[in-house]
Amino acid sequence: MRYMLLIYSKEAEMEAMSEEEAGRIRAGHHAVMQETAARGIFRGAEPLKSTATATTVRVQNGRALITDGPFAETKEQLAGYYILDCEDLDEAIRWAEKIPTACKGGEGCVEIRPIIAIPQPTIATSQAGATSQPGKGGEA
Amino acid sequence: MQFLLLIYEDEKRFATGFDPGEMAEYQSFGKQHSQAIKGGNALQSTKTAATVRVRNGKSLVTDGPFAETKEQLGGFYLVEAKDLTEAKEMAAKIPGARFGSIEVRPIMTFS
C-alpha cells in the first residue's frame, strides 16, 4: 500500500540552521531516498518552500477568494513529503523514523497517511502500469 | 515551476463515499490539465493517520494526524505552472475548492 509521509518542522529553526546542520539533514534525506529506491518502494518526494510563500484558494458562489499564507497556522509547518509503497503501517513508521524532521533537539514530526487506490478506467494511457506511476492523471 | 496543491475539506462529506458527479469532475479536471499534472493522490481519512516523532533517538508514535483542524488534508496535485497566478487558477478549478480550501505551495529547488 502506498503511504504519504508528511514532514512537519519548525521553519524558523530551519532558516536559522547552520550550513553544517543543513548538510546533515540533506544527507539524511538522500539516505532515505537511496535506500527506498534500492528496495523499489520509492514513489516520490518533494520539499516545499516556506509557508511565507503559501497561497490559499477557496471558491464561493463561483468566485475565487485568495488569501496569502497556508490553510492553517500551526506550531510546526508542512515542509515536504515522501510517497513510499510499504507492506503495512509498521513499515511506513520505520521509514518515518529515519526521515530527518530537523533540527535542534529533533523538533518536528512525520504524519503518515494511507493513499486511496483509485482505478482510472477513463484515462486511455493508464492501463496495467497505472499503479506503478502514482497519481498520473485525475486522482485526488 | 512546480507547485503542490493541497486539498483541505471537511472529510465528513466523504463518510458515506464519494459523490460520482464530483468524481467525474475530478476526472475532467485531470484530463483538462493532463500536461500540467505531474502527480496527485487522494488520502484515506485522518482516522487512519499515525504521527511519528523521534526524540533523543526514541520513536513516539501516536494515532491521528499531526494537528486537529476544521478541514483535513484529503489529497493533492503536483503541477507544473509558469507562475503562481497560473497555479492559483488551476487550484480554483479543483472541485474541492468549492467545499474547502486549496493551499498552493511552491516546490523548493536546490541549486
Topology of helices and strands:
The complex is a heterodimer of chains A (140) and B (111).
Chain A: E1 2-9, H1 11-15, H2 19-38, E2 42-47, E3 55-60, E4 63-68, E5 77-85, H3 89-98, E6 109-116
Antiparallel strand pairs in A: 1-5, 1-6, 2-5, 3-4
Chain B: E1 2-9, H1 20-32, E2 37-43, E3 50-55, E4 58-63, E5 72-80, H2 84-93, E6 101-106
Antiparallel strand pairs in B: 1-5, 1-6, 2-5, 3-4
Fill in the keyword field for this structure:
heterodimer; A: 140 residues; alpha+beta; Alpha-Beta Plaits; 4-stranded antiparallel beta sheet; two-stranded antiparallel ribbon; 3 helices; 25% helix; B: 111 residues; 2 helices; 21% helix; globular
Uncertain parts of chain A: 121-140
Portion in strands of chain A: 25-35%
Spatial gap, N to C terminus of chain A? 16 Å
- What is the CATH first-level class name of chain A? Alpha Beta
Main sheet attributes: strand count, strand direction, barrel closure of chain A: 4 strands, antiparallel
Rg of chain B (C-alpha, Å): 16 Å
| Outline of chain B | globular
Q: In order across it, which strands form the biggest sheet of chain B?
A: 2-5-1-6
Can you walk me through this structure?
The complex is a heterodimer of chains A (140) and B (111). Chain A is an alpha+beta fold and 140 residues long. Chain A has one domain: Dimeric alpha+beta barrel (Alpha-Beta Plaits, 2-Layer Sandwich), CATH 3.30.70. In chain A, 25% of the residues lie in helices and 31% in strands. Chain A contains 3 helices and 6 strands. The longest helix of chain A is centred in the N-terminal third of the chain and has 20 residues, at 19-38. The two termini of chain A are 16 Å apart. Mean pLDDT of chain A is 85; it is low at 121-140. With 111 residues, chain B is α+β, with helices and mostly antiparallel strands. Chain B has a single domain (2-106), classed as Dimeric alpha+beta barrel (Alpha-Beta Plaits, 2-Layer Sandwich). In chain B, 21% of the residues lie in helices and 38% in strands. Chain B is built from 2 helices and 6 strands, in the order βαββββαβ. Chain B has helices at residues 20-32, 84-93, and strands spanning 2-9, 37-43, 50-55, 58-63, 72-80, 101-106. In chain B, the strands form 2 sheets. In chain B, strands 2-5-1-6 form a 4-stranded antiparallel beta sheet, with helices on one face. A two-stranded antiparallel ribbon of chain B has the order 3-4. In chain B, strand 3 (50-55) and strand 4 form a beta hairpin. Chain B is globular and about 45 Å long. The two termini of chain B are 14 Å apart. The chains are: A alpha+beta (140), B alpha+beta (111). Chains A and B meet through strand 1, strand 2, strand 3, strand 5 and helix 3 of A and strand 1, helix 1, strand 2, strand 3 and strand 5 of B. Strand 6 of chain A pairs antiparallel with strand 2 (37-43) of chain B.
